[in-house]
Design a protein that fits this description.
The complex is a heterodimer of chains A (about 775) and B (about 170).
Chain A (H helix, E strand, L loop, with lengths): L21 H5 L14 E7 L5 E7 L1 H4 L4 E6 L29 E2 L5 E7 L2 H10 L1 E6 L6 H5 L16 H6 L7 E2 L7 E9 L2 H6 L3 E9 L11 E7 L4 E6 L4 H12 L6 E5 L14 H11 L3 E4 L2 H7 L6 E9 L5 E13 L6 H8 L7 E10 L13 H18 L4 H8 L18 H10 L1 H4 L1 H5 L6 E12 L6 E7 L5 E5 L7 H13 L6 E5 L16 H28 L6 E4 L2 E4 L2 E7 H6 L12 E6 L7 E12 L5 E11 L6 H20 L30 E6 L21 H13 L5 E2 L3 H8 L12
Parallel strand pairs in A: 1-13, 9-28, 11-12, 15-16, 19-20, 26-27
Antiparallel strand pairs in A: 1-5, 2-4, 2-6, 3-5, 7-8, 8-16, 9-14, 10-11, 10-13, 14-15, 17-25, 18-19, 18-24, 21-22, 22-23, 25-26
Chain B lengths: L2 E8 L2 E8 L4 H8 L18 E4 L2 E4 L12 E3 L13 H8 L9 H14 L5 H7 L11 H23 L1
Parallel strand pairs in B: 1-5
Antiparallel strand pairs in B: 1-2, 3-4, 3-5
Helix pairs in contact in B: 2-5
Amino acid sequence: MTTETRPEYSSVGKRETRIEGAGKVTGGAIYAADVQVPDMLHCKLVHSPHAHARIVSIDATKALAIDGVERVIVAEDFGQAVKDGSNPAIDASNRGAALLAHKQAVFTGEPVAAVLAETPSAAEEGVEAVEVTYEVLPHVLDLEAAMEDGSPLARPPVSDIDHSEEEAHVTLDVDTEEAEGKPTNVASHVSFTRGDIEAGFAESDVIVERTWRSASMHQGYIEPHATVADFKPATGELTVWAATQGQFMVRDTIMRTLKWPETKLRVIGCELGGGFGGKMTLNSPLVAALSVIAGRPVKLVLTRAEDITAAAPAPRAMINLKTGMKKDGSLTAIEASVVYGAGAYPGAPAAVGALLGTSFYKWPNLKADGYEVLTNHVSVGAIRAPGTHNAMHAVEQNIDEMARQLDLDAGAVRLQNVSQTGDPMASGQEFTKIGLDETVTQAIEHPLWKNREAAKAESTDTKMVGVGLAIGGWLGGLQPAAAEVMLNNDGTVNAVTGVNDITGTNTSFAQILAEELNISLDQINITTGDTKTAPFAGMSAGSKTLFTVGRALREAAIDLREQMFEVAADRLEANENDLELKDNAVSVKGSPDQSLGMDRLASMTTGFGALYKPLVGSGSIAARIQAPGFTAQLVKVEVDTDTGNVELKDFAIVQDVGFAINPLSVEGQMEGGAVQGMGIGLWEEYIYDDDGKLRNAGLLDYRMPTAADVPDIESLIVEVPSEDGPYGARGVGEPSITAGGAAIANAIADAIGARVSEIPATPERVLRALGTVGDGAEAAGS
Amino acid sequence: MSRLIVSARINGEARELLVDERDSLLDALRERAGLTGTKEGCNNGNCGACSVLLDGRLVNSCLVMAAEVEGSDVTTVEGLELGPQQLHPLQSAFLEEAALQCGICTPGFLVSAKALLDTNPDPTEHEVRFWLAGNLCRCTGYDKIIRAVMGAAETMRNTASSSEGA
């Protein structure tokens, strides 16, 4: 669906199947765990069984006696791997540098030793035989308890909080205060204010104040973390094959952690089996260091249980939200306390949550505080739109509840209040051109929303039907990028980028080149180079791959075209302005006989004695203008009031993508994120016992949606062109995950007349909301 | 550690593999036979990424001991193509419908879908969704996978009926 008149293009905007997909359907694509290097050692990790403990001693004698076990490495050994002899594991302030726990372990599952062996099974036996003596320390798991004065500290205080995971996804123009003075579990605090909230609440006709919770969750990638590192002592060269969304980030992290020269470091980002924010640098510095110490290649592939327990899940949140509205539907004030659990190392998206949670509507008065709180859980990482689904769950339930209490249409209320182009965010920064209004309009015109009363009428005594709506969005990441496009002697084109293609972005890149060079997709090859051969590109994260690298490629293609015109103008004795590029040739407009084929142009720039320089188009951009993308999602549910089970009946996602360069892959991004939102709403949750041990560290008990759980998804594309993206495109990957959980919670409330205060909305929580289990305290609109 | 030789037909080819007695079929395929198309997502039967056909029956290869396949026929994703550069209709449909993104679950889905269509050439959408419920995908949201399988089924039925008519 097009909101503005769509320009006519020859290639971009068309549905294209993947140009390089065959490897993925024949088993030929190579992922990091598939990499085999001769003489390779296999690594398995020894994990702390305690949430918080001092490491008294580690005895590897028995492990080293096992046939095939070569080395057992502990934190104290890492000085051997660092160029200046320093040891990054000592007093590590961030997870990336904490290669192995040093002196104390701060979450259950934290690696404390690495066993290197000739086979994976020998390494496993070695892990069993390493004897670690712990002195258990007091731990803290509850977010509210952790914030109280006198709470046990989850870990020693840290300085220099690493926000690189958050920054990889979004560029925020805010100042975060880091904790100072007395040690506390509150690692950072961010605050936004506008107007006078007390005055705002005073003029409200309804005020809703609730505490909303959302669970810690796994990103859900099907490929566990995998890394292979190969250090060659003879040459000093270190090569790393990584399952990562950002090979340059892996390179830079190893460079900083091991003080390693980048001239001696090659990082190869393999085909990636899903990331969703969870695949950045986790084990790469560790495996690199192990290979340097052992002087042999080392491979580490996490087990599924390790990956769930001890990788870097997405944070849980506890959000206290007070909002006011007038009878005419206008908003008056919002007061938000947004608390994210960081786990045992700082790095949670408190600033994102506080900012996005209070910026998508026009709040005349606001006060938002974001807190990042340390506990003895695994430290969190990014996820698709880190922090946003938690915030939207809270805000969208409040908006819905205020509309219900004032007997207003919850869709119309949203349309009346959503932020527009130029409106200020909570930080004061103004929105660039956005299409939130158009997105909400599409959603509330949809039959699923318009016919919601008829849907409710389908309810029976024990099967209650409801329809829910929620909005979400993402500001979009910014990062510079470069790319190169080269003309081949047969007239085809090779391009090189440094960004890992996870979802089919190389096909969209090819569409951009085809558009600018007026050639067909089968004349284009896109190579993802490694960190030694490719020009710099940022991570495949933050909804910015196509937004930034696509722009660099477009510039590179235009540069190549201009270079071709320069040669052709000289050769054809024509003015460059009179030339055109079509049918694989540069011709004088109106004189098709005055023409030079692209193959001919290439040979004139590469042959023996050729007079013209080789044609290499370069593009290099620094993206500075964000292009926020918004979504509105609709869901119809059926709640079984006997069991509390919620069945998803229909789902529609509306999203402003600016311009869909490849609508087929855009739909894929929308549908995939929508289903993650369904998992957030109904099933996915880390469940810990009182000792901080994860009780559901497997894919049966950590329940992700299956094909049988989810309905068909209707994807409705809105196109409000961005100011700065290629052809008006916006980031597409992230908005889709941000609204599903909230929409489901609102649909449940519509069905049963009571709100779950915590997602996922498990049967128990639904029955508690209904008052048939527990004390019935969660009645509607408390 | 003790080793044994397992003889099996893998993708139609007689193979003898020297395996560790503790190896699963998944280990044997990936580490001994060099067939890394079959993926490990969980190693306990929950994700379906390691799906293969064992004597025509769909199994999670992580839950089968390598020693158990002595004398059996094993089909992996590498054995699905109909001929050189001739994709199976399921493989073509997965590409055409964009039924894959990262691709790590794709081999398992393809093998699982083949097992379905081998026994039920005309499944309903409901049957496809429930048959594939043992295969997890995190990228696509499943819609396009379901469409690809339904589309491939139709293609295969049409091919079968036209070759019958010929």
